[in-house]
Amino acid sequence: MTLPRRRRARGRVVLVLALLASLVVAPPCGAHVGSPDVWFEGAAGPYPVAVVIRLPGVVPGVAAVTVRITGGAPPTGVTLIVNHFDATAAAPPPEAAARVAGDPMSFSGHLWVMEPGSNSVTVRVTGSRGSGVVVVPVSAVATRRLPLSPVLGTVLVAIAIFLFCGAISIVGAATREGSLEPGHAPDRRRRRSARVAMGITGVVVGAVLLGGWRWWDAVDASYRAEMFRPLASRARVAHGALQLVITDSAWQHRGDTAWLDRHDASVWSPLVPDHGKLVHLFLVRTTGTPVFAHLHPATADTDTFLDGLPHLPPGRYRVFADIVHESGFEQTLTTTADLPAVDGSAGGSVAGSSAGPASGATDADDAFTTHEPVPPDSTVHLDDGSTITWIDPHPLVADVPAGLRFVVRAPGGAPAGLVPYMGMAGHAVIVREDGAVFVHLHPMGTASAAAQQVLVMREPGDSTRGRLAHRLAGASPTAPPGMTAMPGMAAMPGMAAMSAVVGDTVSFPYAFPSAGTYDVWVQVRRGDHVLTAPYVVHVAAAATR
Amino acid sequence: MGRLRSAARELLGGVSAELWDGRSKKAIRLTRRASETGSATDCSEHQADSDSQLWRATRVVTERVRILNGLDNHGLDADDAMTVSIGPTTTAAPRLRAATRVDAVGFTLGAVMLSSVLIVTGLIWDISWHRTVGRDTFWTVPHLQEQFAAALAGLSCGWLVLRTTFAGSHAEKAATVGFWGFRGPLGAWVCIWGTLLMITSAPFDDWWHNAYGLDVKIVSPPHMVLALGMLAIQLGALLFALSAQNRSDDGAAARSAGFVFAVAGGIVVTMVCTLIEENAGVANQMHSPLFYMVTAGALPAFLVALGRAGRLRWPTVTTALVYSGIQLAMLWILELVPATPKLAPIYNPVTHMVPPFFPLLIVVPAAAIDLLLRRWQRGHDWTLAVGLGLAFVGCMIAAHWFWAEFMLSPAARNAVFGADHWGYMNAPGPWQHRYWHEDDHIPWGRGLAIALGLAVATSRVGLWCGNGMRRLVR
Predict the structure, then answer these.
(1) DSSP letter string, A359-395
(2) Is A436 exposed, middle or buried (0-12, 13-18, 19+ CB in 10 A)?
(3) Do the beta carbons of residue A425 and residue A531 sit within 8 Å?
(4) Rounded to 10 degrees, what is the CA torsion of A474, A478, A484, A490?
């Protein structure tokens, strides 16, 4: 990803430092695919909050933030700060969020996200129970290219033509009459000169317009080139194992600053584990009955990731690999893999689900399902005899909270007694039919717990690559020291879910980003069993936003 | 006195008769003679057509009448002189109602000059805002100042045009140029055009920010549209002042009109210098060929044109001083205003408005331009352009090479020179006190050749524009 050259003129030092810091990933990146908004539930000290951050899809841009206090008395105030992940930078003063009219529990504000990459939004809630803070990780990236509306385009062209003609007329008038003593009419020679001048002006202004047009094109091309693209990767099956390789040159040369500088390439910080795994890899079959697998390949060099392949039906699979960088950047690598037919799975007719090494996978937390997805109002019978039910499903509309709440019952209807699955009360993976939307949710929402941990734990000394990752590795996955350093951070439901028995319900704050047919897989753990419930849902288009 | 006056009458009659007969050579000779007496009237317009010859001769004669009459011109004011001088042509040239015209035009000149200075100071203030506070809205004070300035220029010129077109006397209309059926001074049309351009840039810029990000760059297509609109208003003000200067005959009036013109020019130069400051603004850039290429490409056209068209003894120097004054005033005022950043990441926690850079020392090449323009009269413009180009680049290097050494030294880091002021987004480091070379990998030989080529070319353009500007009276 090239950096805008002009920006270097004055901001070069920022960028040089950023390169040296190595924690900062210069290009934009982000978690998930086609789902840029951040949906978060947590606790700001004593206040349970739901935070929605709608990103502008372009950086720098203005993000709209909504904070809803989901319990207790209305607070007296909410402030917001957005800050770029950079250990050398200071945060701006907090901005007061405005109370939403008619709802004493909701506040809204706008934040200017100036730097692409890992940003934090710090929400402070103040009320009768004191003051509480929560940090929400935001991966701000350029994800969309805004088309010029026909109306605006027409208006601009019309004005351009008007001003073009105006400029020519002014030059003509100046040549014809400008130097003429008052009262005298221009003679033929002056009129001829004026026509020549007008012709020349037409050519010159036309050339300027053309130049401007090409300049615009160049800016647009450069913008498109700098739009977020995840690291390039490749997946294939070899010797019965699934191999994922991050092939991106910028990643391959991540330690070679000379190469990166020479190629004006991105500087990526190391990977950190997110709830215990360096990579969360998801396989979704593109044809026939949707097949879903959630794998955790191991690596020795963070270039190549290997996992024993579960017994999945053959076919072409979309591969989504979630990774988190030391800077708090989350991104989803996307590629495809063709799975060959193996004994016992030929024909793609195998229906079942499983987890753990017994199923052929190598990581104890790997899981997959080949069950046919069902509509939200169906009760899903899970492999261990328990059932999962979508609580109060309602028609889904894009950009409207989806109400992803599920209850799990043991056989016979008793409470299921769910335990954390990789530190989380539950996981949900949502993929649109065409693969253009992918999101990996937890009860805390779209944000990654590791990214949040990174942003809370960062210190000024973290400009040395790997220092924060090292500290992070030493931190308890359930109660990182940085999380308790700020009041109320330990009480976040998502984080609490990493250590506690989580009851029998699980919910995910989220709104589908666009209309379409989606597959939703909900994963929970009962005892030693990872249980996966497949749903298929239809999301209607939002009226107007 | 009586003898002198009769000589004047004789003289006037002679001129009128000659012009009426279409024999213009003597008129030109006369004009030359007049210029030798100290009149600022143009004296070397070989190609002038009969209309302008008539007018020039008239002006010379008016001047002669004044000389002959001494302080007491016995009611022979400009209009009378013109009427007398034109003699047999008065049926074609209506008598001017100068006072009325000056009121309306004078008011508009004042308005567009105010608009022009508000635009450039608003722009410098706005840039400072972006380097200090960062976050802004449509309603920040510098934005409001810009909007007011645009409205002031557009409305005052629009008013003048409508007034002249629909309520102007024949004489008032006669002193204007026509545009799609309307009548107005040339400066008014340029100002209106600039205002429309500024207005157009607003929705374009808004869309641009939504599409490509809230850029902090000065140089982007919508910003350039806006800047061109601003520049057009300032050029319109310049043309207003120019035609006032060119119309004024009296020595003192010509000087004050020439000064107003130089101020208008100084504002334009300040605008141009602000637009190029990303590449040519700060001492750290002054040991790089890019600095000299950019200044050579942007400045000589303006400086030379203003020098050639100005009536002051040192028009270009005055212009450069006006630029320096505006820039210094903004530097010395803004650095006193407390302000803090409101955008992350903050690499440099500033506590006061980050002021503009210390002005470039263009007063040095300006002096060289004035001297060269004075030494080489018209008719040698190509040679002169080469001389001007060489002088510009030479003076720029001579002035800035050592100036940069001082500006990067601790001695310049004070309120007077304002060195070492950086925006909130610039992380402090040794780069602050070093020369920057990362951006351009241009060898000095090539860079210098390009700079010289640009300076010669833009000087030639400046001479060409200046020659045209000298003739503007409407």
Answers:
(1) GT-SSTT-EEE-PPPB-TTSPEEPTTS-EEEESS---
(2) middle
(3) no
(4) 170
Q: What are phi and psi of B455, to 5 degrees?
A: -65, -40
Cβ contact B52–A8 (<8 Å): no
Among B351, B353, B318, B349, smallest CA distance to B332 is for B353
Question: In the numeric block, which tokens belong to residue B300?
Answer: 């000589």
**Per residue in B309-347, pLDDT tens?**
998 999 999 999 999 999 999 999 999 999 999 988 899
DSSP assignment, residue B89?
G
Residues B389, B461: Cα–Cα separation, whole Å: 11
Please state whether the peptide bond connecting residue B221 to the residue before it is cis, i.e. omega within 30 degrees of 0: no
CB A480 within 8 A of CB A399: no
Instruction: Name the residue among B166, B168, B305 with its Cα closest to residue B239.
Output: B305
Considering only CB atoms, B190 lies closest to which of A82, A170, A189, namely A170
Is 0.85 exceeded by the ipTM? no
Interchain proximity A91–B344, CB inside 8 Å: yes
Interface of A with B in 499-538 (CB under 8 A): none
pLDDT tens-digit readout, B169-226: 888 888 888 899 899 999 999 999 999 999 999 999 989 988 998 865 667 899 999 9
Pairing of strands A516-526, A505-508: unpaired
- In this prediction the pTM is 0.80
* Residue A282 to residue A323: CA distance in whole angstroms: 12
Enumerate residues 6+ apart whose C-beta is below 8 A from B50.
Answer: A187, B19, B22, B24
Interchain contact A262–B (C-beta under 8 A):
no
Collapse the DSSP code of A71 into the 3-class scheme (helix H, G, I; strand E, B; otherwise coil) and give the result.
Answer: coil
